[in-house]
Amino acid sequence: xxxxxxxxxxxxxxxxxxxxxxxxxxRVLMAHCLNKPSSFLFTWPEHQPTDSEARLFQQWxxxxxxxxxxxxxxxxxxxxxxxxxxxxxxxxxxxxxxLLVDMALNHLDGNAxxxxxxxxxxxxxxxxxxxxxxxxxxxxxxxxxxxxxxxVERNCHRLGAHNVxxxxxxxxxxxxxxxxxxxxxxxxxxxxxxxxxxxxxxFEPLTxxxxxxxxxxxxxxxxxxxxxxxVPGGLLAFEHGYDQAEEVRELMREAGLTxxxxHRDMAGxxxxxxxxxxxxxxxx
Length: 284
Ligand SMILES: C[S@@+](CC[C@H](N)C(=O)[O-])C[C@H]1O[C@@H](n2cnc3c(N)ncnc32)[C@H](O)[C@@H]1O
Description:
Blueprint: H1 4-15, H2 22-34, H3 39-43, H4 51-65, H5 70-74, E1 76-79, E2 82-85, H6 98-107, E3 115-119, H7 125-133, E4 138-143, H8 146-159, E5 164-168, E6 179-184, H9 217-226, E7 230-239, H10 245-254, E8 258-264, E9 270-276
Parallel strand pairs: 3-4, 3-6, 4-5, 6-7
Antiparallel strand pairs: 1-2, 7-9, 8-9
Helix pairs in contact: 1-2, 1-4, 2-4, 6-7
The chain binds S-adenosylmethionine.
């Protein structure tokens, strides 16, 4: 029987050239096969996994060589300091999206009982991170199919987010009330973008990624629907592609939103754009 360090060495060699993160991938997969923290691998390199643990590890390495994302193999991904269950029904949460969470937290009153909708919630990463950071808010986690609702429900339960309401809806169609804020990381990749054929995204559903010929079809739709559902002074905030900020600001301007601002990610790209509903004018 092979030891942890022998299995890891062989796995690294198999992954070399297929994954840019061969060493980390092998360690994460091994730790999950053993159901141990990754520190175990450093402390007990001579430990011998059981036959079934070693078999599962080899199967996962083979699937990783085919390109399957580590998060789908282990069914988990960390976002905003919380561990989310993930599934191939929706996008794996990305670190970039933490900027959208930060912006919502920075621009909204943390103590007021605000109603905040997260459109295209996926795993619930944005809605649940906001809900846990702001217990006074009521979050509405919106997505379009039942399997995703089930995933969000399990994540709420695991993470103890009690102030999240699930809404199965085609964007805002089932949202009747008014909201203080609507945030969204919608699909925003052009449907013929060659990146859709590369890396991890090949395994993620197109419904979570692609949005018409220019990548902006869903953002256009959401803006049109959101302005009828936001309170005066309400916030609309999007994550979008690194080269879409100007177009998103223009779409928001055309819809009558004000105080438009785009914010940069760690790589210096404008990736999150905010706009506010005008406040109602007092009668003279
Ligand atoms: C880019 S993923 C974002 C997932 C998650 N919010 C995150 O940031 O990790 C977009 C999500 O929008 C959902 N979606 C796509 N079209 C939709 C529609 N018409 N109505 C509601 N949700 C939709 C997809 O199912 C997917 O979960």
